[in-house]
Amino acid sequence: MTAPTLASSTGQVRVEAMDTPAQSPRLRRPQAERSADTRAKLIQAAITCLYRTGYSATTVSSVADEAGVSRGAMTHQFPAKTDLMLAVVQSVFESDSAAYNATILEMEPARWLVALPQTMWSVISRPSGIAVMEIMLASRSEPDLAEKLRAQQKRIDERAHEWSAERVRAAGLEPAPEAEAIHELYVAAVRGLALEAVFMNNADGVQRSLRVLSDMMRRFYPDIEDKL
């Protein structure tokens, strides 16, 4: 479309573009949103690096490269490697909690309890679960990481124990006297299976072990058979 011509007061011809829409300025996302996005990218990149190359090879530079962000953006979010590792553990806990909660809707509470070992396996054996174990093992030789990780893990365990007791009650049962120890036993057992599976092609063995853990659940809670 040709723009009309208008005569100015000086007699010169002025052309106005009628068919070119004014371009609105590109909206920038809020700083907090961009910062949260960068943080999430770095945490996911750290999980990838930890799973792929282990703790020692997971450096600030390698994580920044994996995330596709600058070193400056990396250190702005996480001044030290320890800060990033603690953020990974917290993020994985929250992600795992969401995964467990999603399975609650899939079956009756008693059946869910019996199937818990298999559910735990599907969650803990993910790359994020292996990444957390890499961090735990590394804390043996890093006192600062160990001190902060123990405090963080204590809070996580307290929440996990409360949630576990809620699931037992949802099945119409009362938590066993050693409910917390039972929960810790299952977490340790499944973590051990997941760690072994990293270097052993033993899928059949894992499934046999998970069935044993399910049978143990029935022994810890004999009345569960009446709820199935």
Describe, in plain words, how this protein is organized in 3D.
The chain is an all-alpha fold and 228 residues long. The protein has 2 domains: 33-79, Arc Repressor Mutant, subunit A; 81-227. It is 68% helix and 3% strand. The protein has helices at residues 31-53, 60-67, 71-77, 81-104, 109-114, 116-124, 127-138, 143-170, 179-199, 203-220, and strands at residues 5-7, 13-15. A two-stranded antiparallel ribbon has the order 1-2. A hairpin with a 5-residue loop joins strand 1 (5-7) and strand 2 (13-15). Helix 1 crosses helix 4 (81-104).
Chain-wise SSE layout:
Elements: E1 5-7, E2 13-15, H1 31-53, H2 60-67, H3 71-77, H4 81-104, H5 109-114, H6 116-124, H7 127-138, H8 143-170, H9 179-199, H10 203-220
Antiparallel strand pairs: 1-2
The helix-and-strand class reads mainly alpha
| Helix-strand string | EEHHHHHHHHHH
Gyration radius over CA: 27 Å
Shape: elongated
In helices, the fraction of residues equals 55-70%
The major pleated sheet works out as:
2 strands, antiparallel
- Number of helical segments with 4 or more residues: 10
Strand line-up across the major sheet: 1-2
Average pLDDT rating: 90
| Total domain modules | 2
Report the sheet-strand fraction.
Answer: under 5%
Number of β-strand runs: 2
Point out poorly predicted stretches. 1-18
End-to-end Cα distance, whole Å, is 75 Å
